């Protein structure tokens, strides 16, 4: 066993031990605890949990490489702005109001505010989006085990499943949240140590966000010499229209993803929900501002150490990573030198290497490499558990309890939730071991779908009292259908059509979102308005203090209470309140 | 809160939101994309400014925007006498 493997093992065993201890300490016995940690998580902890939930294996391992290697540099900005800018929308437009509404799931809000058919569409969308994501996380767990510990992918995934099973089934949202707080700490330390070390090496400045500027001129020059466009030059790969549309789709998609929105239900109060959003973005920004710096530093190192080097004189790390297939070299012209240029030249470099190999490239000691492995596992496991909770709560709360057996006791609901969680983990593990080929593409598209479906009807549901059930359902369907149709038409594995105005399939979600807004608003003009009591309820969720209607609505006598309060004349005959 | 107070509270919330969202759009879509070439003419600490907004500045401003929102909303709540927040989780 090498030094690196030994240290990796030490950190993995240590961190997994902590996760299991937290799981045991925060086991739950109520549905409120299982679904939303009883709405009792303090803001900084909730923020760290949101950040860990949000930053997946892809953010941790691939982001720096996507920015620096797939693009010339600038084009990757869509991910940096898109995956952080959405939190401004969440904080200002959704978090406080959804917390005031105070339910378990996003379909809960959609179903209560609009209609049962809207609830069903929401459930299906939430489950599909979450499964697509979770498959990628489990595959990430397998990858790390294989590369750092030499364990087979299958064994790695199964180990990951067992750990998640332990804390997610036992502790539900409460266990997941507190484990995520620990996981955030592990992953951010693991990310920042190599970032700072490389920044010091290359720029002499210990803050990567600043040191990054010192090398840009040199990097621009190196890229031009090799025949690339300059690192900082704009619109060399993605035109302005697509930059705008893709960034917007990622932002609005972030604000429409069920596993992110649900986290604001776990906050202690409306005020804590606002602070949770602030803490979350702060914690996320630590990694998201470091990632482009790591990307640029590594690219400089990479070009410097590799381009034009004799093939038999490559550095050790190059050989280590080409052994596991992350770098492939094909000396096409047989000159014995590595020719690196536009399109890769004789090199094929996997994006993941920028973070995984960064400590070795910078010559950092073995414990740091082990820590990075533990950090990548923390990122994958924390995101997986948050997604699994959405699946479990959608099945157990929105389908089983709301549709199949509304008389189920709390113990029974909790049991169904745990069984759903266990089943979801098994499916996720299977998908992780046998990932469908299109997962990576679908994950990018999931943002477009979330932007085109959930975001408009949530925002309108809060900000426009007269949004009707039929309007929202029509908008939801219109946005979803047009976006999916466009994606199927343009994406290369299906239709490979040219699209309209050259709009990228990842950016079309923005157009779908606008369609959703327009359809919802237009149809709402011509369909029966929400009941006066419902309009009054929407009014009430806009104010953070305690109020009567929200509680009355939950207990099923919204109309009666509204009548008592003099908001409406008398409850409508027949079945009152919510169904 | 009576009806007049409520509409005043909501109006001020909407005004704060509009200002913050305008800045949100300006730094990301504006400085980071639409005006990137123009801003790249200016170099600060080694960063072409448009590139900096796209990869660092916009994220920094996003954090500040939420901080300002949280701070101003706390003040607004205090002004309207909201000192007790909804903490219940309602479920049936």
UniProtKB/TrEMBL annotation, chain A:
Lineage: Bacteria, Bacillati, Actinomycetota, Actinomycetes, Pseudonocardiales
Pfam families: SSF (PF00474)
Biological processes, Gene Ontology terms: carboxylic acid transport
Localization of this protein: Membrane
Gene Ontology CC: one annotated term: plasma membrane
Primary location class: membrane
Protein name as catalogued: Sodium/solute symporter
NCBIfam families: Na_symport_lg, sss
Transmembrane segments annotated in the record for this chain: 6-24, 77-98, 118-136, 148-169, 181-202, 243-265, 277-297, 368-393, 414-433, 439-464, 471-489, 501-524
Family: Belongs to the sodium:solute symporter (SSF) (TC 2.A.21) family.
A GO term, aspect molecular function: transmembrane transporter activity
Keyword Membrane found: yes
Automatic annotation (TrEMBL), chain B:
Keyword tRNA processing assigned: no
Keywords from the named record: Membrane, Transmembrane, Transmembrane helix
Pfam families: DUF4212
Transmembrane segments: 21-43, 49-71
Domain spans labelled Sodium symporter small subunit: 7-83
NCBIfam families for the chain: Na_symport_sm
Name listed for the protein in its UniProt record: Membrane protein
The organism of origin for this protein: Pseudonocardia hydrocarbonoxydans
